[in-house]
Design brief:
InterPro entries: YefM-like_sf. Belongs to the phD/YefM antitoxin family. The protein is about 55% helix and about 10% strand. By secondary structure, the protein is mostly helical. Among the domains are: about 10-50, YefM-like fold, CATH 3.40.1620; about 55-90. Helix 1 (about 20-35) links the parallel strand 1 (about 15) and strand 2. The longest helix is centred in the middle third of the chain and has 33 residues, at about 55-85. The chain starts with 14 loop residues before the first strand and ends in a 15-residue tail after the last helix.
């Protein structure tokens, strides 16, 4: 199970100008990241990159994979549902049934036609 993450907005992350990477060196930026958990690197006050621990990156990627798998499972279920509903179109005589539906005058008597009446 992936641990819950306390994701912060860009505005709330501690900031370090890109010049600090050069001035303090990579080790200095890594110390700031270790102290704060995450560091937003800016260039002229514009966000450019976020440095975060590998464990946190891995947890985020796992959450994204889990969400994608759930979405795919939901889409597969929806596809199966509609395939089952439309399966009758492959039955012998389905074309005649459709032709018959289009030949009938459409009188809904004020009701909404949803297609579940088939």
């Amino acid at each position: 199970m992936t641990p819950a993450l306390a994701l912060k907005s860009l505005e709330s992350l501690p900031r370090t100008p890109a010049s600090d990477v050069k001035k303090l060196g990579w080790r200095g930026v890594m110390k700031a990241m270790a102290k704060n958990g995450q560091v937003l690197i800016t260039n002229h006050e514009t966000p450019e990159a976020v440095i975060l621990p590998v464990e946190e990156y891995t947890a985020i990627m796992n959450l994204l994979r889990d969400a994608a798998a759930r979405d795919e499972a939901a889409l597969d279920a929806l596809r199966r549902k509609y395939d089952e509903r439309l399966q009758w179109l492959d039955a012998p005589g389905a074309g005649d049934v459709l032709d018959g539906l289009f030949d009938k005058p459409l009188d809904l008597n004020g009701k909404i036609f949803t297609g579940t009446e088939f």
